[in-house]
Amino acid sequence: xxxAVATRMRKxxxxxxxxxxxxxxxxxxxxxxxxxxxxxxxxxFDVLEFFEERKSDASAIEVADGLDLPQSSTSALMRTMTTxxxxxxxxxxxxxxxxxxxxxxxxxxxxxxxxxxxLINLMxxxxxxxxxxxxxxxxxxxxxxxIHVIQAKxxxxxxxxxxxxxxxxxxxxxxxxxxxxxxxxxxxLVKLLNTADADPGNAVDVKxxxxxxxxxxxxxxxxxxxxxxxGAGVVAxxxxxxxxxxxxxxxxxxGLTDALMSQERQFAGLMRDAxxxxxxx
Length: 281
Prior knowledge:
The protein is of the alpha+beta class. The chain is 47% helix and 16% strand.
C-alpha cells in the first residue's frame, strides 16, 4: 500500500479488507476489463459499500478519494442516486448519506434484520385495518418521494408506484414532511424551490405554506384532496425520529376523495395507534 492510499484511508476511516476488494483500477487491467455498463453498476455498489463501512455522511470528494474513482463521474453518479431517492444530499454541508429506501428494498428477504421489520409491520397493519394503499415517504432534494408502497386490494383503489415523486410544497406527503422541519428550514427550501422554477406562476407562497404546515403540527396529520391526483388524496402523518432513517419520514394512507373525506378522523386515529404500537420504545 503506497503512502497516498494509506493517507486517504486514514482520512475516510476505511480499513483494508482481506482478501482485497476489486477496485476500479484493477477492474480495468488486462484480463479484468469490464463493460462500461457493468462498471457503472459496480460503482453504485462500491458507493453503497463505502457508506456501509463509514456509517456516516460523506462528500462526493471523500467518496471518490476513498474508492480511488474520478471525482467528476462519482459526483454525477451520486446526484443520480439522490434523484432516485437512495441518497440524501445536505446542501449546507455538501454531504450525502443513504436514505431509508435502501433498507426498505431488502425487507422481504429477512425482515428481522431491519429493526424486527417494525416499519414494514406498521405499514402492513395499516393496510389491513384501512383497506387502502399505504406509503412511506421522505424528502429527496426539493421533492417528496414514496420509498415503499403497499398497494390496496380494493376494486376501486389508488395505485402508486414506489419511487413516485410529489411536490414538496404542494402535496399531503410534502406537508407532513415539512412539519418535521423548523420554519427557518421551510423558508430556505421554499426559496430554493422558487429559484429552481423559472415560471413565476408556480411560485410557492411561503406564508400560506407555513400556515398549512402549522395546521399539520397541531392536528398531527395532513389531509390532501385532489391536490396532485384528481379524485384522490392522502392522509399523511409525520413519523417519529427513527434509527432506520437519517431524514424525516412520513406515512400516508391514500385513497379516493370520498373515502378520505368520510374517514379522515378514523384513518388518522388508526395511524396514531399503529405508530404508537409499532414504533414506541
